[in-house]
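User: Hi! I'm working on a homework problem where we have to compare a predicted structure to a textbook description. Could you give me the structure for the chain below?
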Amino acid sequence: MTLPVTFVEVVEVRRITPRTARVTFEAGALADSVGVAPDQQVKLCFPRPGQAEPELPAQSDDPMSWYQAYLAIPEAARPLLRSFTLRRRRPGTRLVEIDFVLHGDSGPAAAWADRAAPGQRLGMVGPSALYAPTVPFAEAAAAADWVLLAGDETALPAIATLVAALPAGVRAVAFVEVADEAERQPLESGAELAVHWLTRCGRAPGEALVGAVRAAGLPGGTPFAWLAGEAGAVRALRRQLVEERGVPKSSIDFTGYWRHRLTQDDAPTAEDLADAQERFAAS
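Assistant: Happy to help. Predicted structure tokens:
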């Protein structure tokens, strides 16, 4: 199975909230079978300063070799990588939608998205079934008594696709932390979904989210929990569910998307490495 590495070109940019830009890209190549399941991960390749478009790693039939090809690009020309979740792939097309949180710092993704315009090109690695969960989300949700989803605005694209995939009759509770009321987005689902919107309002990232889940009167039985967002908050939520709520570790899917005061280019902390090792062991 080949991991696609392709250019994507901007065809539309929309501000769906004051701090979120939804960019529609057309991929140079995209198989019909990929990008249609919920929570599909991709990596975007951003150009270095002075480049009109990024230099991409060579395509290979070996799906695990793309990163070695990426590292083989001289550092001065090597593209900057950031991870995203597809918000949607438009059926029957090579168009994909990706949401960017405009957090106002000098990070390459937010800075690029703030000025994005039709015709600009990035690189994209993925999506691929190679990185799908061992147990698909819908299957894990159906086996549980109910579903818990918790995350911040960076997790909203994934949460939206996940709740949309839930069938009727499934009970689900979502907690979403955003900067303020203007950042709420509609979440459509056929499930029995209750959504709790939490506003940060100057507090530390994840503080409102962790506190709200701890204080919540949650349904009985064993849930399947999906957690994503700022790494420290995700870590605290997972510990809370296991130690205070008695949720089995095997019933929790967790990912720290970003780290407060650190970027993806900074070295992983000891806690980051421990989380990665536990995720790998569970996969």
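For your comparison, note the following. The CA atoms of residues 230 and 260 lie 7 Å apart. The two ends are 19 Å apart (CA to CA). Good luck with the assignment!
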